């Protein structure tokens, strides 16, 4: 078993779980360099639409600013890049995901490399991932957040609201009312060393702070669902918009990483 009884109980009760190191030094070096190459345009196998810049740089990059320090996040890297896809399929991660999801049949829905650039990394405010994806039933996906650099309070590590997943999905218009509830536990920052990861439930409330330090804070978020999940949505608009030369190999947005497929499901 990948997880102890205590770890599973912690996740069920608190909605998140700080975990062990899952990336080697060699894997970290490859992913860091690959993130630089993609973000700066040295390689172009990831369509530009999946590279998002910080708001301050969306109209251009001032002289003297490192282009890498302008990128807010990059998405779908596990679909377009072999090195990132290999991480999404790592047994050390999937063994834990399987126990947390309660199914040996696992699909990757989407991924995000949160760059949180040095000096310019902005706040990502409180939110639940699953609320953005209401077309999945049930809403019980699990995310794995892997630190590519040391993640500290100072440079914007993940902060969670323990136990908040138990309240279910909260519509965005009620976010502030929910966050003011006296029943909620105090926010808990989760600092991680490079190569380590944490898991959180799709309904767990979380945020990341700003990064005004000289240290990069890249974190790879991979969002997993069971292959038995029902999909209520229409054809994925983002997938439909891709040209033939941009489309990755395999089924975009529903990559089977372990187990088997099910007819009529994701």
Give a description of the structure.
This protein is an alpha+beta fold and 266 residues long. The chain has one domain: q2cbj1_9rhob like domain (Jelly Rolls), CATH 2.60.120.620. Helices cover 21% and strands 24% of the residues. The protein is built from seven helices and 14 strands. The chain has helices spanning 5-14, 25-39, 77-80, 82-88, 91-101, 175-179, 237-241; strands spanning 16-21, 51-53, 71-75, 106-114, 124-127, 136-137, 142-147, 158-160, 188-190, 196-201, 206-208, 219-226, 230-231, 255-258. Strands 1, 2, 3, 4, 7, 10, 12 and 14 form an eight-stranded antiparallel β-sheet that branches. Strands 5-11-8-9 form a four-stranded antiparallel β-sheet, with no helix packed on it. Strands 6-13 form a two-stranded antiparallel ribbon. The longest helix is centred in the first third of the chain and has 15 residues, at 25-39.
